[in-house]
Fold these 3 entries.
Entry 1:
Amino acid sequence: MDRRRHFFSLIALVLAAAPAAAESQLRTQNFLVHAPNAQIAEQFGRQAEFFRRQKAIEWLGQEMPPWNQPCPLYVKPTMSNGGGATSFDYRNGGYVVLSMNIEGQIERMLNSVLPHEITHTVFAHHFRFPVPRWADEGGSVLSEDDQERARHDQLCRNYLNRPGGKLPLRRLFNLKEYHEVSDVLIIYAEGFSVSEYLVNKSDRKTFLDFVSMGMRGSWDRACQTYYGFQSVEQLEESWLQHLRDTRDIARRGSNPTTVASNNVGRAPATPTGREVVRLTVPPAQPQLDPAGPIARGAAPDERRAPGVIPLGTNPRPTPPAPPAGRPSPPPPVTLGLPEFAPNSQSTPLKPGGPSPVGFQK
């Protein structure tokens, strides 16, 4: 009897140790990849370095220098569409990539989730400061494949076709936390659409400079300086008209490819010390504890790190009042159902149907 008990105890220990033994680690110049096996670790290590170089050149015009310490990259293959989260620590004008977690189907992770998360690191390197959510996520979606960009374009049009579904750009630009809106996916949908429109209107360097000026409290001045619009409202009307003009293209399922020049430019940033988590797309019901860390769609059971400054507590300059004599904003746009296409009957995403990368069912 004792022998049998000892045998089964030994089997239990072997089974308990099996997952840890099966994990493979691979060190590249900038990543420490944790994956189920050596083949997957090698594949994602190679692609992570490739995207790190490619996205930096696309956005900054040059590669980023090697990080002082490798970023732990955890790869978890699943049958879901996928998702990701990247944590940063900003200190004294610098930043550290604490970790990057991605999961989903291999193909989705390689084509969408991984380049999305890598783009967050490029923005962190450029700004050295937490980026406005709409721009950080919208710019990162631009790094995803045609399938995901088209999906976000359709999602944005669906929101605009829905009565009362549009989030005014002035409010979008000044959002600090997800819980400020009832449906967080609109931040991703509109953020992508506006980012794509602005990048196609100029280039990526101009977009980064625009965000840099705007995040310091002067979105109207940023519109005037970089895009020739007198106000955020004028920019909004131009963006909406662009969506109307391209609704037939969207209905056919084509998504214009983003073309941008590779220019260098880094805007000054305010030193800060904080930990930030970027998610590819947040869970459906994010909960952000004001006393906890800044998080991109933190899950309800996420642990709060002590002593981390929440985004809302960071002093920010107040946007200047509109100058006297400025033309009044354009009248509200009537959003007829088929106005923006491709779906005349707009419905929210539901479990089991198509969803953006990382949407938690």
Note: The longest strand covers residues 94-104.
Entry 2:
Amino acid sequence: MTAARPMAAPGHMAVDFEQRVDFDRLRGYRLDRARAALQASECGALLLFDFYNIRYTTQTWIGGALGDKMTRYALLTRSGQPMLWDFGSAARHHRLYSPWLKPEDCHAGMLGLRGAIAPSAGLMESAVRQIKQLLTDAGVADAPVGVDIVEPAFLFEMQRQGLTVVDAQQLMLDARVIKSPDEIMLLTQAAAMVDGVYQDIAEALKPGIRENEIVALANKRLYEMGSDQVEAINAVSGERCNPHPHNFSDRLIRPGDQAFFDIIHSFNGYRTCYYRTFSVGSATTSQRDAYTKAREWMDAAIDAVKPGVGTDEVAAVWPRAEEFGFASEMDAFGLQFGHGLGLGLHERPIISRLNSMIEPVELRAGMVFALETYCPASDGFSAARIEEEIVVTEEGPRILTLFPAHELFIANAY
């Protein structure tokens, strides 16, 4: 039997001699999925503020510093093309460089920068009035409007002007859950970039280097390789490993430390969440045992992945919270964990004993998610953390994260 070919991570640019990412096809796929979700709903239109939903439907992006300001938004009606409101100069740029959008559908917009401009200035009132007229023009003024995330003041203004608002985030997350071959290739390329960064970390991980220096190294290398956003780097070592703090510090790495890292970045919008654990120079029996358990839990979860399996069946192979030192599944959430990857870091499915036993989701081919395990060591302060990114195929799971992780990696052994 011929072994399956590796998932392709062919490079950053299109070429004439290989089929790589087809961005026109990608844009069409995403908009078609959003439209299908809208058509299947009660909504007459979707009003989107979530940065990732805006990118999914309009195929536009501006700097991440504006991503949490709640001032960009997009409107998709049942019969129309996507309309976008953006910072004025960005809207002008879209008219020049985003020909899949009609120029007249790229508007300058401003709602208040999360309240810095008070609602009493009238920006929200005029924006809702304009949206109402567009809904009337599209013949859907009497239907509910689906909204994904929203500032309370904007929601109140929509209600004051007589609009019925319902939840669109569920619709959009369902639309985004099945990845196209182009999306999977971008996710694979993003993971391949982190493969290389972990090689750099393994070589640099010596006594005397600080956690923040590893973070700086990872950021530099990712941007050099073409990352469009390094969202976060966790760097956790020594006594900081247990409990897991989910951040980094200026702690000096010391001989014999166990250290783990999580690299979260995006390539053309598609994200990684990719942990690896190292020991520095040498490892104790306690550290090795913790790693072995974390690996066993990871392998059991991967083995459970195939189309038709419920996320409760995957979560069931992981230990209960009480078995690794936590009082409840809420206290342990995010440690034995799975989450969808795509334009967002935490998409569907979310796999955990906290939620999957109550409301399991059926795995389907085309889903892409990360699986994470965590095992505290018996020494009371070390811990092992492993994460693998998985594509669900008809034949079973395919792994995107290839830096060695089947055994505890001893960096710069002595």
Note: The chain has a mean pLDDT of 96.
Entry 3:
Amino acid sequence: MHMNNIPKIKLGIVAVSRDCFPESLAVNRRKALVAAYAKKYDAADIYECPICIVESEIHMVQALEDIKKAGCNALCVYLGNFGPEIAETLLAKHYDGPKMFCAAAEESQDNLIGGRGDAYCGMLNASYNLKLRNTKAYIPEYPVGDAEDCADMIHEFLPIARALVGLSKLKIIGFGPRPLNFLACNAPIKALYDLGVEIEENSELDLFEAFKKHEGDPRIPEVVADMAAELGAGNKKPEILPKLAQYELTLLDWVEAHKGYREYVAIAGKCWPAFQTQFGFVPCYVNSRLTGRGIPVSCEVDIYGALSEFIGTCVSEDIVTLLDINNSVPKDMYEESIKGKFDYTHNDTFMGFHCGNTCSKKLAFCDMKYQLIMARALPEEVTQGTLEGDIAPGDITFFRLQSTADTKLRAYVAQGEVLPVATRSFGGIGVFAIKEMGRFYRHVLIEKNYPHHGAVTFGHHGKALFEVFKYLGVAIEDINFNQPAGMMYPTENPFK
């Protein structure tokens, strides 16, 4: 599946060398690293900078110009030996983009005189100098290794770099204030600017006007046919497809006309209360289709939800969704379908739900029909347009990046799975299981005032997401995760 709303990373590898060590150590180790990467991964991911920096700021400038000319949007500073702590950290300081440091391990016990590089030591000085210069860089969990190890480190950095580059060129487009009685997704936008993200806030009246102008758009039949093909037998409300197609074209045209100088876009959309009566449908299915193409659309003008979804799209290079951390799993369902079959307690389970914004590719089965909750208070025909079905079972990561009321960034990451258990409910919904979810729910989600919306990637991406949040400057104590039993939260009662 092609996603053209996320960056492609080309990472420049620059080897550095200290002048009292043989330069050949850094050069040969760089060549071995590049060869190891090309053997295991896609060689197009990386660019080998031919300039080997000795202890020289002049070489640092030459290397910067070279990787810029080569079109690199990420950097790996590779310590082939001890490395020149000033030049190598100036390189990171002046490089405008995500950067990482890794270091060469010694190669053989038979070559520990002429062939010893001491990069293990040099890595300490590099980190110290980065801090002196207030320069951020990703340093892997264990940053010293042979060519194959360092190739793996670089490959692990790519999803992190994708998210960082993506955010630096992202515009979030919002429509309308959050619905009444919906303070949950309200958060100051100042923190977005701190992240380098642009935001454009519009009235839903502007959106309605644009929608009206798309009436009779000649492209509508083509989009209707595409929707019908996607839905197949699940097309329960075919009469609403022309309006949904009109709305999809409205959003796509808005994105093109309003992205300005930014390369990537996410949308925080409106869906109730007046949306249904004025537009004549609900936008969930359209939101699912755009998200499926890599343009996340959050519900209920959830700006930080859209931000989180975009980060997840970059990291996973896959479709994401946004769900309410919604309802408990009934005891009888747990007893019948989960207990003894899966290694989870009842409190580890919950249901994740939204009306119908999850892409059909991530549902086990689906129907496009009407929104039950809204139809309780409105004529059913104006609530059509939700994509309903059980979310496909498999690994997931639940996460969110959020601004607090006083504009501090805070995040959580929890890995788990969607269980192959029939939900017997409505909407886009799944039975989720996350180890120690009960404690996480109480001491992170409730204690730290997170809203009920969480972003979901389909797969375990916690490692990369954690590093993205760290790189973005989220304080370590504010990157929360589902702590294992025996590791207490600060607010947990020891006598419980």
Note: The longest strand covers residues 394-403.
